[in-house]
Amino acid sequence: MKKYLCLLVVLITNSIVFSQIPEMEKMALIELYTSTGGDDWKESWDLSKDVSEWYGVEIKNDNVVSLSLMNNNLKGSLPESIGAFNKLQVLNLAFNQIEGDLPKGIVELKNLMVLRLGKNRITGGIPYEIGSLRKLVILDLFSNKLSGILPRGLFVLKNLKVLLVSDNNITGRISEEIKDLTSLERLEIANNNIYGDVPDSIGLLDNLKMMVLSENRLSGEFPSQVFSLPNLRALQIQGNRFDQERLRNSIPVDIDLVLFDFDKGTHKSERDNFRDIYRKGDTRMVDTRFEEDKDNE
Predict the structure, then answer these.
(1) How far apart, in whole angstroms, are the C-alpha atoms of residue 108 and residue 85?
(2) pLDDT tens-place string over residues 217-257
(3) Is the distance from CB of 94 to CB of 116 less than 8 angstroms?
(4) What share of residues in the chain are helix, strand, coil (percent, to 5)?
């Protein structure tokens, strides 16, 4: 009898230690592994072990809440089943070699706060349905092969603090609705094919610390309201078609920026360009932001 009681205790203990995520989530992880060449990852998964031991997978309350495989040699496309993680808060697959369009399942991740897919080879457009990710704080699609426009659905993301889409093939205009991104702190849309005027409404983004609009086809009169943004510290607008005389005349004599680049040279001491800032700052920023969010739960 004692033998059976001991066995029962062991079984109960194991069931607590090795908590089970939903089968759908486990299958989605395996599909991600196979579709992105998991055997060749820098840090691969031993599929015979418990999911809690798989590199970059964080589990909380029997659900995957974070999937971080940055710079891990992922090659291939993202499966549609990526949308199976309904409790996922962080998806960080930046600095890999992921190809193909963004799967529709991405917009099913309603609890997502951090989406980092920068420095891959993703094609297609940013889906309009991106606006369904209402908890999103960081959207990083830097340096891919994305095309199309910045969709209107993007501008309903009231919690968005970081928007990085530089180094793509995005076209179209900057919408007046950008003013609705009231939490935005970093806006980087450099090196695309965005054209037309910069709307005056961009000067209403009082939380903005960094604005990078360089190397596009923007034209007309640059909105002087931007120079009065209370938190702005870095502004890059070179490589566009702005009215240079009006621009020079609109720059305040006492402008206080760490970095200010426009076509007539650097106005202040240039400490970093936007690519260096991206590489040095973003990983820490994402990690810190997520830790803060967890602490506030």
Answers:
(1) 8
(2) 999 999 999 999 999 999 999 999 999 888 888 999 888 89
(3) yes
(4) 35, 20, 45
Interatomic CA distance for residues 270 and 257, integer angstroms: 10
193-196 and 171-172 as β-strands: parallel, antiparallel, unpaired?
Answer: parallel
Lowest average pLDDT, out of 90-104, 154-168, 267-281, goes to 267-281
pTM for the structure as a whole:
0.84
**62 token code pair:** 């029997």
Which pair of tokens denotes residue 73? Answer: 């040699």
- For the chain, the straight-line distance linking the first and the last C-alpha, in angstroms and rounded, comes to 45
CB 32 within 8 A of CB 78: yes
Residue 101 DSSP SS3: strand
- Residue 127: other Cβ atoms inside 10 A: 18
Burial group, residue 16, by CB count within 10 angstroms (0-12, 13-18, 19+): exposed
Residue 107 token pair: 């917009």
